[in-house]
Specification:
Number of helices: 10
CATH architecture: Alpha-Beta Barrel
CATH superfamily: Aldolase class I
Distance between the termini: 5 Å
Bound molecules: phosphoenolpyruvate
Strand order of the largest sheet: 1-2-3-4-5-6-7-8
Shape: globular
Number of strands: 8
Order of helices and strands: EHEHEHEHHEHHEHEHEH
Length: about 250
């Protein structure tokens, strides 16, 4: 499976920093065997468009509804009109800070698919849940409910242990790989044979220094990168090792 590396800029950046990123990215060598995606804050989508070589565009969120009186929301069709091919849904920050349930995440993933995008559906356990050894059950429960309306060809799963996001505490390759194997089994149960083609990417403090060892794991198909994706060079370094050795 070709590696997939997605930049999640969260609510960072400015018009100037976006222009700098585009400029720096386009000076870096082209990458082989990897798909790269940038998910900037929505206001910057239009100015990025297709200006970054080889980079697809994605939204960080989308509304579950198609249109109407939903102040502050952005529909999947609006993202598509700006060139987005991916939408992150169910990021742990959306789940914890904005109270998004699995049912809401499922509706958002469905909405993204209807508009023609791939939904990057995020799942992951909290530190407490891992310490209580409930992480596998929690993640399988999230998958079962968040993917309830999805078709296999419309989704990417991002495993992001909450305790590893923005904390500098990456899951060890063994921890991540073992959870990805559990996720693959769950996807095969939910989607039958087509579950084997759903990319499962890892997120949580991925950096140039730890990316290669994560990508060497059998069950890790790429990464969702927050902090380290804000710098074109470090995002390129991460993406540059995602293609190597993958089948
Ligand atoms: C994220 O925002 O999805 C993420 C994984 O962030 P970070 O890489 O900064 O941990």
């Amino acid at each position: 499976m070709t590696g997939l590396v997605i930049a999640n800029w969260k609510m960072h950046g400015s018009t100037a920093s976006v222009m700098d990123f585009i400029d720096q990215w386009n000076r870096l060598p082209a990458l082989a065997d990897v798909r790269t995606v940038v998910c900037p804050p929505h206001p910057y989508l239009a100015s990025i468009g297709d200006r970054m070589a080889g980079m697809a565009l994605g939204g960080q969120n989308c509304a579950e509804q198609t249109e109407g009186a939903f102040t502050g929301e952005v529909s999947a069709a609006m993202l598509v009109a700006l060139g987005c091919r991916y939408a992150i849904v169910g990021h742990s920050e959306r789940r914890s800070l904005y109270g998004e349930s699995d049912a809401v995440v499922a509706a958002k993933a469905a909405s993204a698919a209807v508009a023609g995008m791939t939904a990057v559906v995020c799942v992951g356990e909290s530190l407490d849940e891992r310490q209580r050894e409930e992480h596998e059950a929690v993640v399988c429960g999230q998958l079962s409910a968040s993917l309830a309306l999805a078709e296999a060809e419309d989704i990417v799963v991002a495993y992001e242990p909450v305790w590893a996001i923005g904390t500098g505490h990456t899951a060890t390759p063994a921890q991540a790989d073992s959870m990805h194997a559990v996720i693959r089994t769950q996807l095969l149960q939910q989607f039958g044979d087509s579950g084997k083609n759903i990319p499962i990417i890892y997120g949580g403090s991925v950096k140039p220094g730890n990316a290669a060892e994560l990508f060497q794991c059998d069950h890790i198909d790429g990464a969702l990168v927050g902090g380290a994706s804000l710098d074109a060079n470090s995002f390129w370094q991460i993406a540059s090792v995602a293609g190597t050795g993958r089948t």
